[in-house]
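so im writing up the methods section and need the Protein-S-isoprenylcysteine O-methyltransferase record in one place, dumping it here so i stop losing it
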Amino acid sequence: MTFANTPLLKVALLLAHAMSTYLGFTPPAVPPPPRDKLIRAPDFMRWNPRVQMAIFAMDRTVLCVLAVAEAVILLAHWSAPTNLLHRVVDAVLSSANVPLNSLPLRLTHACVVACLLAIGGGLLRRWCHRTLGRFFTLEVGIQDGHKLVTSGPYGIVRHPAYTGGLLMIAGNFMLLLSGGSFFTESGLRGTWIGKAVATTIVAHLTWVAVGSLYRTKTEDELMKSEFGESWEEWSQKAPYRIIPFLY
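--- predicted struct ---
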């Protein structure tokens, strides 16, 4: 069996990818009530929280559904023709003029890299969620009783949650647009719906990625003004914002 024809490995990677994407793109908690939060810096990325959360929910749902759907299709493809899963999936795909046996789904090196990036990024973000606890929010601000956390991933870089987010975005971009995937090989990517969905997701997550790089400066200024010497000591131990030895 060649590398490309290892369906169970790809199924495992896709399911882990979907779970990591879901957990990584899901906020750990609701924002703190206004009385417990002291906003000290403007945050252009939160110009409309409800719209932002709705778009994030769409991104998360589409990306996870595509990964899980491809995993199910792979299992059906490699099962016996008499198997119930095979027959059901084949019937659904055939109704859309995409017979199951005509799909050249395969495990590519790009798929492996994409899944590993997303899995690593999702796990890193969950680590950040657990390390910060209630202090992890999607808004730039200082809460009552806020503490400067410098342990765990925050002892490596100052903004590891953004590191995880960027890894997840890169992994999802690769998986969404690479060959050998259901989204590409089924022709869905070439339809107007596929183009609209892909363009929306890519545009939004690109904006988030660029915004995250800018946001680190704002957060550093806020934390420095709040914690002073403690922040200075931390910045000496963790001199990089997102990528060790680079940025």
